[in-house]
TrEMBL record:
The family this protein is said to belong to: Belongs to the PanB family.
This protein's pathway: Cofactor biosynthesis; (R)-pantothenate biosynthesis; (R)-pantoate from 3-methyl-2-oxobutanoate: step 1/2
GO molecular function per UniProt: 3-methyl-2-oxobutanoate hydroxymethyltransferase activity; magnesium ion binding; methyltransferase activity
Annotated Gene Ontology cellular component terms: cytoplasm
Name listed for the protein in its UniProt record: 3-methyl-2-oxobutanoate hydroxymethyltransferase
Amino acid sequence: MSEETTAPYGPTIKRVRTAHLREMKERGERFSMLTSYDMLTAQVFDEAGIEVLLVGDSASNNVLGNTTSLPVTVDELIPLTRAVSGAVQRAMVVGDLPFGSYQASPEQGYLTAARFMKEGGAHAVKLEGGIEMAPQIERMVKGGIPVMAHIGFTPQSEHALGGYRVQGRGDAAERILRDAEAVQEAGAFAVVMEMVPGDVAAEITRKLQISTIGIGAGKECDGQVLVWQDAFGLRSGRMPRFVKQYADVRSVLLDAARAYDSEVKSGEFPGRDHTF
Ligand code: KIV
């Protein structure tokens, strides 16, 4: 069966590709993206019909327990990327290039991105930055690597940006628009916009031919992305305003762990059914 059999893309499509996202934008259809860092969540999200899975550098916070995304390394992210790409049938898997692995030069960026494709099995890579990252994007695209850009609030630059804050308010909107145009011009197939005012993101979405993906950027983007532990309630504590919580996975796990602990301690588990 061909990959382009039906639209909208249901079970008949084999793999979501950059061309499909472009066609969805042309038809005014939205798509969804979630982070995933392991085989089992990748299978679930793929089955749910999520078009794009991002093996985010947010694994630094959400898997490895760091307080920012800065410490995570290429060697730490590649095995996670391989787990996700090996688990999905339909979703596009995007590997997130970590801090310091591409900013130094287009050549450095290309070599890192190639590792995500070869060793991680990623279908595309994501990098943070706008105009200043255009040479990196061009180099990767020339070398056959699809690139998703990430502008607005870029967590790898949290210290340079002065902390977590909305980008592109007032006069700064022009800068975000120029970043968006620059990454499109350089050959990116999509651009994540993080913590950008909704009206600015809407204007950029109208102006660009490539897909925009919002996280705290309002409803007019072509797609939306959330970190799954935030969206499905595995993480506890204060959430950014843009997160909607769809489930309370932490409570389910906590209850299950408590029930197991109590049955082990009381001698109820394992019972006859679980004994050879
Ligand atoms: O690493 C990540 O999770 C991301 C998303 C927030 C877009 O970059």
